[in-house]
Amino acid sequence: MDKLSILQSAINTVAQSSLERGVNATKPSGVADSLFGSGGVFESIANTLLSLLGAIAVIMLIIGGFRYVVSGGDSSAVEGAKNTILYAIIGIIVAFLSWAAVDFVIDQLSQGNAT
Q1: Are 53 and 91 in contact (CB under 8 A)?
Q2: 3-class secondary structure, 79
Q3: What's the pLDDT at 80?
Q4: Whole-number Å distance between alpha carbons of 114 and 38
Q5: By C-alpha distance, which of 47, 60, 48 is closest to 87?
Q6: What is the DSSP secondary structure assignment for residue 115, as one 8-state letter?
Q7: 85 contact partners, CB below 8 Å, separation of at least 6
Q8: Packed helices 41-69 and 75-114: angle between N→C axes, nearest 10 degrees
Q9: SS3 string of 29-71?
Q10: What is the Cα–Cα distance from 21 to 52, expressed in whole angstroms?
Q11: Residue range 41-60, pLDDT digits in tens
C-alpha cells in the first residue's frame, strides 16, 4: 500500500469513530439500537401489545366466570357466560401463539443481521 491509501484509511477510521461517538452521545438512554433486532423497536411494541391482549383476555375470563356464577340457572345467561369463557381462552391461546411467532421472527431477523 502506498502512503496515500494508508493516510486515507486512517482518516476514514478516525472520522467514522468520531461520528459514531457523536451520534451515540446524543442518543438518550434506553433507546433501541435497531428496528427489528433483539431489543429493537418492533419487539418492544409487539410485546407491549401482546401483553395488553393477554391481560384483556384474562380479565374477560374472570368476567365470564363471574357471569357464570351469578347466572342463577338462566339458560341464556349460562350460555353467554360459557361463550365469554371460551372466547377468553381462545384469546389467551392466540396471544401466546402470537408472542411465539413474533419471538421466532425477531430471532430469525437477528441471526440474519449477525451474518
Answers
A1: yes
A2: helix
A3: 93
A4: 11
A5: 60
A6: -
A7: 61, 64, 65, 68
A8: 170
A9: CCCCCCCCCCCCHHHHHHHHHHHHHHHHHHHHHHHHHHHHHCC
A10: 37
A11: 777 888 888 889 888 989 99
